[in-house]
């Protein structure tokens, strides 16, 4: 069993910072100590295998990205990152756990799909991974599958109010799934957009000859997001199920979540880096077909409506509790380009799993969020929200040795000449200059990224059997 000492770093947890040494014994954090201390007279430094000097650097719990879609079948193709390439890219960026979505399409067996996801992931992941389950047509068998999956460590279920014929559940189906979720103590997750409204707007736009990527944004207006968010909250309130609204982009949807929380409900919201930095005009509205790079749902919002400013604020006020990527990459060639001449055929999704920790650290650099809040939004709350806390999301004795050494004086230039490690032929973040740098990444006590070198292997990552949410009021 390898023993590693990370010394002289600034340990950052959601609760605060301290200069401390972190001792990792095998896969587990054994002690967090004042620098240079001995353990019952025992000279630690002389009794470990590896000493890492983290002076001047932050020692943080590894990032947890609770919203990814590796190899997701969608829009007639597959998300371009496999579990192998996607989790390796995540490791490069300081993320040591993901929670990926098992996809079930109408008529498919939920349990079969769950097993298929295990087959895709097992032996291929660089970091630990858990699963949420997507339910697309709620049958009686889906409800019994929900019961079964709770025992498998799948304690959260995503439903969709959009994508008719693909993912959409009607309100009655949603109600039934939420009732079962409430009985089981599950976390219900919602893609909150009014699909019926969107389908009409898309048809009208295409008929009027408005076929460019920009119109993807125009046909998914904030009203569709606000309305669906409100409806999802009402169903959660009625059934008593806790609700986690994924990829929130509109300030009006945030207001719905905030109002529900003010009423004491277990309603939570997630946003993604794209909604904090990118816009309808500057990215989706780019020249020609370029905007396809940023086609995702919910869409990028107008920079003239104050969504970004409001979203950063909601990260401070805890109206929005966490930041995930919704990593769902597609290449421009042979994937996004299926939608040339018809934006509705562009596969939806952006790839960011590698950049989330860096992008969110910029919020610390610019004074939008504090250092502990950075860790809370990207690691600690994801762990608590989805039943992993204690093992994940914190630097403390007994936790997994998932540790990132982050150099605030380092620098990262994103994207240029495909310097990223995601399996994409472009970067949605090209040109972003990051103050800060992921130096070293440990996954369960083993160094898997050593400055500018990935030294892990596929299959290092293990399945995380999750418990119930530890975030409920
Ligand atoms: O555009 C997106 N978000 N693609 C992934 C599927 C989803 O709705 O999360
Ligand atoms: Zn979604
Ligand atoms: Zn998603
Ligand atoms: Zn460095």
Structure description:
This protein has 473 residues and is of the alpha/beta class. 30% of the residues lie in helices and 23% in strands. The protein is built from 13 helices and 19 strands. It has helices at 83-92, 110-121, 140-151, 171-184, 195-207, 214-218, 222-239, 251-262, 273-277, 280-284, 307-317, 356-365, 371-385; strands at residues 3-13, 16-25, 28-33, 50-53, 58-61, 63-68, 73-74, 77-78, 95-102, 128-134, 156-160, 187-191, 243-245, 267-271, 322-323, 403-413, 433-443, 446-450, 453-454. The strands form three sheets. Strands 1, 2, 3, 4, 5, 16, 17, 18 and 19 form a nine-stranded mixed beta sheet that branches. Strand 10, helix 3 (140-151) and strand 11 form a beta-alpha-beta unit. The longest helix is centred in the middle third of the chain and has 18 residues, at 222-239. It is globular. Bound molecules: N-(aminocarbonyl)-beta-alanine and zinc ion (3 copies). Pfam families: Amidohydro_1. GO terms for molecular function: dihydropyrimidinase activity.
